[in-house]
């Protein structure tokens, strides 16, 4: 996600250590912010039985927003163990790299490290601004990325891995996804000014970033895998769906909390949530066996809504990791599934933890202090 006004975050260190022979430790971290919130969080590596090398079946790791155009992020991928994940699955929830060349290098590195890699494209992956005349438009680049995945052995279609069904879902955002009250009275830049997608993507006639057409177009591509999905629904004990974009507005902080309060207009898709519910059911599958992984907003998230667990585990930009203390070089992909079960919650996840104890108040449009000082009021 690139907006010229980065969404404010007070997220905490996100350390997920899953080394097969790591030792268990924890330490207390105190974090405070200017909105009167003060939390003690455990910086806690998650130690699974599988971490000690006796895993029963494949482990599934998740990550989004690798942004390996940044040298530090490419280095992070290069530094992932070439031994520890040999039997494992990695889900990459979009925004790998802006250029095809870096995308190809990154996905090849991941494929060398994991037994299975699944991928869905994000908005940055479809940017054309640094590709010269290599692509007529972002749709052609989209198809070239899927072809590259096929060559490298990266999955972009639904598939069962043992008793676990993994379903990548194509999607794009639309402005009407945002149903909450707008912030008024401040000079907040337009979507076109703040969001680079409006300039860095090119779309053929009939498709536009400014309406619902892209959301409907990408969602319809998922129809092609409905037969495989039906089979997965019948035969698999657990199902993980994943997308780059956000399926529900509750999975993003309220506007008054965000550095760019219009962010909810460029993050999510109603068709995506409908698609997810058509797979998992209106209330999720029985025995807490439904999970959806997403990316894009760079907020770590882990919450259950209407019977489905929603998880975001972004690598994000180097500057965001520094500012948010997401964990820097010690951060590893989050292990979501091991020993034929879903793992404990991703921790820490500042905002989903915040909303687990504080109700959402979308009618409250008074900007949080850290946001208010950033914007000038409209002249009356
Ligand atoms: Fe994105």
From TrEMBL:
UniProt-listed Pfam families: Metallophos
List each copy of the Calcineurin-like phosphoesterase domain by range. Answer: 59-149
- Cross-referenced InterPro entries, in alphabetical order? Calcineurin-like_PHP, Metallo-depent_PP-like, Pantetheine_PDE
User: What GO terms are given for molecular function?
Assistant: hydrolase activity
The molecule here is called Uncharacterized protein LOC101499651
Give the source species. Answer: Cicer arietinum
The encoding gene: LOC101499651
Where does the secretion signal sit in this chain? none
Q: Which domain of life is it from?
A: Eukaryota
């Amino acid at each position: 996600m690139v907006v010229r006004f980065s969404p404010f975050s007070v997220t905490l260190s996100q350390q997920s250590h899953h080394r097969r022979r790591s030792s268990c430790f924890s330490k207390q971290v105190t974090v405070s912010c200017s909105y009167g919130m003060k939390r003690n969080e455990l910086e806690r590596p998650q130690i699974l039985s599988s971490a000690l090398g006796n895993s029963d079946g494949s482990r599934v790791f998740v990550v989004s927003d690798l942004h390996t155009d940044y040298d530090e992020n490419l280095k992070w991928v290069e530094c992932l163990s070439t031994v520890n994940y040999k039997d494992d699955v990695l889900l990459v929830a979009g925004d790998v790299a802006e250029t095809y060349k870096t995308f190809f290098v990154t996905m090849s590195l991941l494929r060398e490290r994991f037994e299975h890699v699944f991928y869905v494209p994000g908005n940055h992956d479809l940017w054309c601004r640094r590709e010269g005349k290599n692509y007529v438009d972002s749709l052609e680049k989209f198809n070239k990325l899927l072809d590259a995945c096929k060559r490298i052995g990266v999955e972009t279609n639904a598939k069962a891995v043992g008793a676990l069904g993994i379903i990548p879902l194509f999607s794009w955002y639309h402005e009407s996804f945002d149903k909450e009250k707008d912030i008024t009275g401040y000079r907040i830049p337009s979507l076109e000014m703040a969001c680079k997608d409006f300039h860095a993507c090119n779309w053929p006639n009939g498709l536009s970033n400014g309406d619902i057409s892209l959301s409907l177009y990408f969602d319809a591509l998922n129809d092609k895998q409905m037969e495989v999905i039906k089979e997965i629904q019948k035969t698999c004990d657990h199902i993980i769906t994943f997308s780059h974009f956000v399926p529900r507005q509750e999975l993003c902080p309220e506007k008054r909390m965000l550095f760019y309060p219009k962010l909810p207009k460029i993050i999510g898709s109603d068709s995506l949530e409908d698609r997810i519910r058509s797979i998992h059911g209106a209330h999720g599958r029985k025995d807490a066996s439904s999970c959806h992984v997403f990316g894009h907003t760079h907020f770590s998230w882990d919450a259950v809504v209407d019977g489905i667990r929603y998880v975001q585990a972004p690598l994000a930009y180097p500057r965001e990791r520094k500012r948010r203390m997401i964990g820097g070089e010690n951060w590893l992909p989050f292990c979501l599934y091991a020993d034929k079960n879903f793992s404990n919650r991703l921790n820490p996840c500042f905002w989903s933890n915040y909303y687990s104890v504080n109700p959402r108040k979308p009618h409250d449009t008074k900007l949080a202090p850290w946001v208010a000082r950033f914007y000038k009021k409209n002249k009356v």
